[in-house]
Write a structure and sequence with these properties.
Oligomer: heterodimer
Order of helices and strands of chain A: HHHHHHHHHH
Structural class of chain B: alpha/beta
Radius of gyration of chain A: 18 Å
Number of strands of chain A: 0
Shape of chain B: globular
Number of helices of chain B: 7
Helix content of chain A: over 70%
Radius of gyration of chain B: 18 Å
Order of helices and strands of chain B: EEEHEEEHHHEHEEEHH
């Protein structure tokens, strides 16, 4: 456990030293939400899609940051060094997941505050659940990033995994068209992807009298994806390589 | 000098490592005595790093066995007793020297060693500096400092003195000798032949095969040459050992 905490502290110290990355992580999503609110300022659209947008940013940013960070660990030799030390794969994986989970929490608090107080978004009666779901999405992005970095040999490849792995999820999750209006085959695919459940939860929780059991189910599915992806990611950390 | 010591720190039997269709290590057998400094010499591409990774336990073996301190290489019990310094500094560039050491010390449970290894590697004045802003030689010393945390029994160092000025190089070799005098076993690779004379024992590696093993003086005498470099060439040409 101490080694997990030490890893979390180390990852957060690295990010803290990189002021520009920290600023981009925390401020850019809020600014983009402001931009969307402005675009739709003369229509009622923003209230419908704000939840989904707020879900998207932690997922995308944490995916990118984690996949690059772990790729750097692999390539700089620090991962190889760590794996010759008494650190378990779980220490490493959870160390990262906690660090980026905390960042995702900070990011979603800033995002939600901005959307509510500046853009006039109504998050409904369950703000805490809304923020927690957003944070879970950030952790999901971290889990995806850890998993994807195993398949990337270079930073170029890691960045290209975003259009390959992230965009289809966003397109199918209901950003343009609700999933139940998709062609049958795509609707089926959409329900195999975690983003669909994230969008669903964040849309449901903001409506009047939300069905909280549906929100809980969505979050349970997201949690399941996190566990599976972190497990797969940890299998990619091999102490012995060719 | 090839007589078997009672319990060598590292023992390798008939080790073969193949990568794709190339044989990187070709039926290697050798042993490294405890409490000594063994130099691993060979040209670039001779398999030095692969041999070191096999000893550390990060290399998949095709066949043969590698035993360190009586355990199979890579055994859990070796993770606090063996330290490995890769050729390029494996430290975090975006952290300070101190933060790097604090992290690795936390992993090893050796927080009290940080000041000691900073002093031993002559880094105390640079402790607050970001590693990425240091020179190449300073960065590799940070990597070495991290390996010294917890006082490992076996140190595997891949070209630790590359890019260092002569004074610093001499002070590192003094440090290596102090560690060996304290009972640690060091395996140090180099392609600089003049470092060989500072070692107790030498392994000459070429194309994945062990050309010769012996003391620097012994190898020179056996080959009838006047330097390690000449002895290496003689071994490589004639296959004498």
């Amino acid at each position: 456990m101490n080694r997990t905490i030490a890893t979390t502290r180390r990852v957060l110290t690295q990010i803290a030293h990189d002021k520009r990355t920290l600023g981009l992580l925390l401020v850019v999503p809020a600014l983009l939400i402001g931009l969307v609110a402005w675009i739709f300022s003369e229509t009622p659209v923003f209230d419908h899609i704000a939840g989904q947008l707020i879900a998207m940013f932690p997922f995308v940013t944490m995916f990118l940051v984690t996949s690059i960070a772990t790729l750097r660990e692999r390539r700089s030799g620090t991962l190889e060094r760590l794996l010759t030390m008494p650190v378990s794969r779980a220490d490493f994986i959870f160390g990262y997941a906690i660090a980026f989970g905390l960042l995702a929490l900070a990011q979603s608090i800033i995002c939600v505050s901005w959307a509510v107080f500046v853009c006039g978004f109504d998050p409904g009666d369950h703000v805490a659940v809304f923020v927690a779901t957003t944070m879970l999405n950030g952790i999901l992005g971290t889990a995806f990033g850890l998993f994807a970095s195993a398949f990337a040999a270079t930073e170029f490849q890691a960045v290209q995994f975003m259009p390959a792995l992230v965009f289809p999820q966003i397109l199918l999750a209901g950003l343009f068209l609700p999933t139940d209006q998709l062609p049958r085959a795509l609707e089926f695919v959409a329900h195999l992807l975690p983003m669909t459940y994230a969008f669903d939860a964040l849309t449901e929780v903001t409506v009047a009298n939300p069905d909280m059991s549906a929100v809980a189910f969505d979050n349970a599915v997201l949690g399941g994806f996190v566990v599976v992806l972190l497990t797969l990611g940890s299998l990619s950390l091999r102490r012995r390589t060719r | 000098m090839n007589t078997e010591p009672s319990s060598p720190a590292i023992r390798i039997d008939d080790l073969v490592v193949e990568r794709g269709h190339t044989t990187v290590l070709d039926h290697l057998s050798l042993s490294v005595e405890a409490g000594s400094i063994t130099g691993l010499l060979g040209p670039s591409g001779s398999g030095k790093t692969t041999l070191m990774r096999a000893i550390v336990g990060t290399q998949k073996l095709t066949s043969g066995s590698v035993t360190v301190l009586g355990h199979a290489a890579g055994d859990k019990r070796l993770r606090t007793r063996l330290a490995y310094v890769t050729q390029s500094a494996s430290v975090y560039d975006d952290l300070s020297v101190w933060d790097n050491l604090r992290y690795f010390a936390a992993i090893l449970g050796a927080e009290d060693d940080i000041d000691g290894v900073l002093a031993a590697t002559d880094l105390a004045d640079l402790a607050r500096r970001r590693v990425g802003a240091l020179s190449g030689g300073q960065r590799s010393r940070v990597s070495l400092a991290a390996a010294l945390l917890g006082g490992p029994d076996v140190l595997v160092l891949d070209e630790p003195t590359v890019g260092l000025d002569p004074i610093l190089r001499a002070s590192l070799w003094d440090l290596f000798h102090r560690l060996a005098d304290g009972g640690a076993t060091l395996l140090v690779s180099s392609h600089v032949m003049d470092e060989a004379t500072r070692c107790d024992d030498l392994l000459l590696l070429s194309s994945g095969r062990l050309l010769a093993q012996g003391t620097p003086a012994g190898l020179i005498e056996r080959t009838g040459t006047d330097s390690i470099e000449a002895a290496f060439i003689s071994c490589a040409r004639g296959g004498q050992s």
